[in-house]
Amino acid sequence: MTPTHLPGRVAIPSLPEQTRTPPSPYALERFNTTPVDEVRQTLLTCLNSRRWADRIADHRPYPDTGSLLAASDEAAYDLTPRDLAQALAGETLPVLPEDAYSAAHTALSAASAAYEAKFGHAFIICLDGLSQAETLDHVLAGIRSRLANDPEEERVVAAEELRRLAKGRLVNALRGAGHGATSHNGAAPGISPHIPPH
Q1: Torsions phi, psi of 169, nearest 5?
Q2: Fewer Cβ neighbours under 10 Å: the N or C end of the chain?
Q3: Taking the alpha carbons of 78, 195, 93, 137 in that order, is the dihedral positive or negative?
Q4: Distance CA 99, CA 57 (A)
Q5: Buried b (16+ CB within 10 A) or exposed e, 105-127
Q6: Domains and their CATH numbers in the chain
Q7: Cis peptide before 35 (omega within 30 of 0)
Q8: Alpha carbon distance 174, 180 (integer Å)
Q9: Who wins on pLDDT, 99 or 90?
C-alpha cells in the first residue's frame, strides 16, 4: 500500500528523528561559504518567507550552529503578518503512515477544513520528538483545541509553530549537507541539493 496524502492541509516536519544529532562543523562551514542565492533557496525550503531567508543568509558567517539557530529564531519572531501569510501559504501536504485507518482521514479532513475556514490558512504544528504512533492523535487534538482560539491568538500560535518547524528543518538541512543523508525521495533533506560537493 502506498502512503496517502492527508486530506486538508496540516504541516508536519519531515524527518523529525534526525534533529536529535547535531550537524557537523563541516556542514556549517559549507552553509557559510555557499553562494548567497543557493543558501536563500535552501532557506526557503525551511520556511517560505523571503524576509526570514534574507536575514539569515545576509548575516553569514555564523561561528557555530547555536548562533545560526538563534538567528533563525530571531528572524522568525520578526515576521510581519504578511510574511506569516506567505510562509503559511508555502506549507505542503504531509503523508499519512501506510497503516493509517480511514477514520483518521475523515476526522482530520473535517477538522482541518473547519480550521482553514475559520483562520484562512493551513493548520501547522511541529511534531519533533513524537513517535509516528502519537502523530495523528496529537494533530487532531491540536486542531480541535486551537479552533477555540480567536484569529489573533491563533496567529501568535501559528507563528510559534512556524518558528519551531523552520528551526527543525534548518537542522535537517545542515545535517544533510554534512553527512550526505538522504530523504525518502532520494534527495538530501534541505541544503544538500543546493550545495555542490566540496
Answers
A1: -65, -35
A2: N
A3: negative
A4: 40
A5: bebbeebbeebbeebebbbbbbb
A6: 4-194 (1.10.3330.10)
A7: no
A8: 10
A9: 90
